[in-house]
Amino acid sequence: MPGFEVFGAEERKQVNDVLETGVLMRYGFDGMRNNHWKAKEFEEAFAARMQSNHCQLVSSGTSALTVALASAGVGAGDEVIMPTFTFVASFESIMMLGAVPVLVDIDDTLTLDPKAVEAAITAKTKCVMPVHMCGSMADLKALKAICDKHNLVLLEDACQAIGGTFEGKPLGSYGDLGCFSFDYVKTITCGEGGGVITNNKQYAINADQYQDHGHDHIGNDRGAETHPHLGYNFRISELNAAVGIAQLGKMDEILDLQKRNYTIVREALSLVDGVTFRRVPEGGIENYSFVNFYLPTQELAEKAHKALGGAGVEACFYWFKNNWHYINGWEHLRNLKSMQPLSTEIKEQMQDLNSKDFSKSDAWMGRTISALVKIGLTKNEVEERAQMIAKTVASVLS
Ligand SMILES: *Cc1c(COP(=O)(O)O)cnc(C)c1O
Predict the structure, then answer these.
(1) Which pLDDT value is given to residue 1?
(2) Relative to the CA of 63, which ligand 1 atom is closest?
């Protein structure tokens, strides 16, 4: 997955353009910047690549989620439906706005179960946030039908699945808004950065203003701009945006390599009796950043994961017991351990996550192992890695 594996001369050239002028900010200083507008340039190229009308670049994937939610009017007391398997940024971005995360089960796609989503809708629900984990997507068709029926915002977190598609559309462009992360370990990186895409003009204007203190960005005098609404600072720097331009230029090559390397690992694992694979919803094409597979039981998955570590196979993840990606590891969320007082709405409306039954999610997550698809390896090295993974898993199953 990581774009840092292909960091090189192109990224250095882009950053040097900025360093030569010293204009590290994306706005203003027109006379000094030698016509370099890296953030703007990235936004235009990214919107085009994602077949979307608008892109707003921001400082991280987490801020992209926050800005997207705020732009769609999600705030205090509004409920946002999100999956039990995701990155902590999902609930962080929701709670940052005083909104309430509602966690629901995943299914064999390892993403939101549409039936569980529908069952969780209340009068306060405003948004459904599917998270396309580990390279593959939620059933967007089913989720869109639910959102249309109940008049909800569909916000795709595509941070881990950039380049995948659903019904021919780039992931992130199918819903009302899509979010991406360009942090250091993502498919393409800015060092730190994130992006929001949308075809909704009002959301785009809102995102542009919200990420920069509410500035209206009208005219050439930053000091004279007015503030139609309250905002915040989620801006990206020109240096980070510059790195992103070079990485975006390499994205299709990265995706091709991911697919090649994924296929080698997947084919080796397909020959192992007892191994099955995560379901990809009909109409979806993965970005191939992980090979996600199931073992017959949780016990065998734990054993296989340990054996892979013991055999020195790197970057095979067992999310069920990891601190970042599954509700099991979120003791701080379950017990609302906040440094500062939380909003009344959050305190009153939050589910009791310690007693809530997520056994359906447990049943899939307990059996899941994800092997990261690396792009910096040669074909031979990937073949060796594939054989090691298959051999080790087979030894546990025999
Ligand atoms: C990485 C990631 C984020 C957050 O992105 P940052 O840029 O690290 O803030 C959000 N959601 C998912 C699914 C991610 O993988």
Answers:
(1) 59
(2) 9
